[in-house]
Amino acid sequence: MNENTKSKIFRILSILSPLSILLLWELLARLSVVDPRLVSCPSAILKTFVPLMMSGQLFYDSWVSIQRVFWGFIAGSLPGILLGMSMGLSPIVRSAVEPMIAATYPIPKLAIMPLILLLFGLGETSKIFTVAIGVFYLVVINTMAGVMGIDKIYLDVAKNFGASRKDFYLTVAFPGALPMIFAGLKLGMGMALILIVAAEMSAAKAGIGYMIWRSYDMFDIEQMFVALITLSILGYIFSIILDVVERWVLPWKQYS
Amino acid sequence: MKHSDSIIINNLNKTFYANNAKVSALQNINISIREGEFFCIVGPSGCGKTTLLRILAGLETATNGEVRIMSNDPNRPTNSMVFQEQSVFPWLTVLENVAYGLKLRKIPPKIRNEIASNFIHMIGLTKFKHAYPHQLSGGMKQRVSVARAFANDPEILLMDEPFGALDEQNRMILQQELLKIWETNNKTTIFITHSIDEALCLGDRVMIMTAHPGRVKSVVSIDLSRPRQLSDIRMLPHYNELFQAIWNSLREEVRVSQGKIT
Ligand SMILES: Nc1ncnc2c1ncn2[C@@H]1O[C@H](COP(=O)(O)OP(=O)(O)OP(=O)(O)O)[C@@H](O)[C@H]1O
Ligand SMILES: [Mg+2]
Questions:
Q1: Fewer CB atoms inside 10 Å of the end CB: C or N, chain A?
Q2: Of A159, A171, A176, which is closest to B59 when you measure between CB atoms?
Q3: What are phi and psi of A113, to 5 degrees?
Q4: Where are the domains of chain A?
Q5: What is the CA(B114)–ligand 1 centre distance, in A?
Q6: pLDDT tops 70 at residue B262
Q7: Mutate to test the interface with B, among A157, A168, A249, A256 (most CBs of B within 10 A)
Q8: Is the domain covering A58-255 a CATH 1.10.3720.10 domain?
Q9: Over the range B148-183, which residues count as b (16 or more CB within 10 Å of their CB) and which as e?
Q10: What number is the ipTM of this complex?
Q11: Any chain B CB within 8 A of the CB of A252?
């Protein structure tokens, strides 16, 4: 079997398996093996999905969440990358900052949400900040590990060629740590989705998390499922975007 | 000018402290290297050759003693090193790797790419100009790091077994190529090798180092005429005399380093 047909088969399989689960779900609901009022069924969800989409309500809530995730992602990852690189390159910065990161990292980010609400109020800033802080930790830790994992010989080469401080960052630390930075960004993306939903459930007037909470209030199981599906689609799109960007900026990485 | 000293090493000592253990890598090295000289260093594995080169490159500090490198041209880098181990940046293409030093020196892209392309042609990798190192073999990567040092046009070239990872054919081609370049620009070159033949073919003098800790055992002048044609040089009776002299000196040290004599 050549590589092409192999990858085609893998792709078909990855579409087929979720489809069969949907089918099973529908079947179990129709045969009343499970209670459709509680777990709904794919056909009913689809019936709710269409009007929600047509009215623009679904797009509106999605767009609100996407924006919060986007800005939170930027606000968390940029400082994370910069600080992580400094920590990786400079033992002084590392010993000054690492204990603080290590001490605060284990605190579940959800636990500080009330504090964030108190500090930033109910507006957009609090949601963006919640996402940012979750992304920040994962990116800073991975970036630092990435820089420290760079073979020392490359720093020697840069030094031998008279690299300035800026050159060390731009020609060695950043490109060398980029694979690990992306590992951090991907983990951060998962974290961002968790946090945005949680933030929107507790204090928001729009967004996918808010939609889920509203459905719960109104006992609208179908709408809740629509929100959940939208979340998974969003997560999927985000991860595809990250994969595409990764392949684009890391042409030197060998992919299997 | 021709016979002024380019590198002076005075009472150089280097001791490493690792895990509470003292390792004396270099002991009392004294040597002067003339401007434009091709200076080879041979010695048993672990005798401190790389350490000596790293001190000259400014990557390691001497424990005591001094090294002085005379610089004539402030606009040129003092030295460029070809490292013994794989040191080509995986995230840069062959062209970008070779042009690395020029880029740091802010040479405009057009000029530096032209210079780099010439050296890439010289090492026979024009077809791989835009390839990334993971697409190259070990020997090809080593050639890239040779080109990277050359392209930087330093006053002194420090080469740490640059052809060690190459197959014999490529090694011979690059030795001849290196000779050709050196014979035109007469750059002061320190060249570490495991091969007595290579030292004889290329060098003006060969320094033989003792087994760990590294000291200067002897320095042999290679009075073979230049320009040299490598295929002819090996036929000369004098080549064989020199080979014998160096080998006799080195053999003892290699056996010491293997623990056969103490
Ligand atoms: N950073 C270091 N820390 C501790 N010991 C070191 C360090 N670098 C080298 N050494 C020790 O110094 C000695 C000389 O090492 P060096 O790499 O200079 O040898 P070499 O002559 O280049 O050997 P080879 O021919 O195998 O490359 C060795 O005993 C080595 O273990
Ligand atoms: Mg060595």
A1: C
A2: A159
A3: -60, -45
A4: 58-255
A5: 37
A6: no
A7: A157
A8: yes
A9: bbbbbbbbbbbbbbbbbbbeeebbbbbbbbbbebbe
A10: 0.92
A11: yes
Give CATH 3.40.50.300 domain extents, chain B: 5-72+156-257
Q: Whose CA is nearest to atom 14 of ligand 1?
A: B48
Q: How confident is the model at residue B177 (pLDDT cuts 50, 70, 90)?
A: confident
CATH among 3.40.1390.30, 3.40.50.2300, 3.50.50.60, 3.40.50.300 for B5-72+156-257 = 3.40.50.300
Residues B145 and B98: their CA atoms lie apart, in Å, by: 7
Q: Cβ contact (<8 Å) for A157 and B89?
A: yes
Residues of chain B with C-beta less than 8 angstroms from the C-beta of A164: 104
Question: Could you give the angle at which helices A57-89 and A208-217 cross, rounded to 10 degrees?
Answer: 130
Q: Which residues surround ligand 2, an ion (CB under 5 A)?
A: B 50, 84
How high is the pLDDT of residue A255?
Answer: 59
Q: Given a cut of 90, is residue B227 above it in pLDDT? A: no
Summary mean pLDDT of chain A: 92
Round to whole Å and give the CA distance between B33 and B204. 10
Interhelix angle A221-249/A174-202, rounded to 10 degrees, is 170
- According to DSSP, the β-strands at B79-82 and B21-34 are unpaired
Residue in A with minimal Cα distance to B148:
A161
Of B91, B101, B103, the CB nearest to A175: B91
pLDDT tens digits, one per residue of B130-168: 999 999 998 899 999 999 999 999 999 999 999 988 889
In chain B, what residues touch A159 (CB-CB under 8 Å)? Answer: 58-59
Those residues whose C-beta lies under 8 Å from the C-beta of residue A123, and which sit 6 or more positions away, are: none
